[in-house]
Amino acid sequence: MSLPIAIARRLITRLPQAHGSTAPVWLACVMSLPMAPDDTPHCIGALWARNTRGLWPRLPEITAIGSPDAPRTLAELLARAPAEPRFFLTDHRVVDMALACEVQLAADPHLQGTQRAALLQLQRALRERDTEVIAQSFTHFDAGFARFTDALGLNEGDAP
What we know:
Blueprint: H1 5-8, E1 11-12, E2 25-32, E3 43-49, E4 62-66, H2 70-80, E5 86-89, H3 97-107, H4 113-137, H5 143-152
Parallel strand pairs: 1-5, 2-5
Antiparallel strand pairs: 2-3, 3-4
Helix pairs in contact: 3-4
């Protein structure tokens, strides 16, 4: 399914600089939910509004579940958004979609059991991915300090 013209006109392909741009730009992200094969497909979407300092906050401004695909979910999000912003589509590596799942779970009392389960499953998978990325990307291991403590005969738990 292609995007309706009214939605496509609100999207931008390049993100303007935070300072110097007067047009409001929000971030948008849509992901498929891991529904059971016999369930109707659903997506989770979220929008983040840039604050007055030109930064995007952690918490999304708007979340929504849509069916059956990403364009319909995006349409649902934009229907809830103010008319003036333009939207830059990004992916889950840029924004915290696990947090968007948490917001949707907390805010939507009308979720069906299958939708709730799919949101929890996606949230868990995204948090596990974050944990893996952190473990692979960041370390406090200092080879020089390890050689120093080895030379002193200190165990890891005994190091100062």
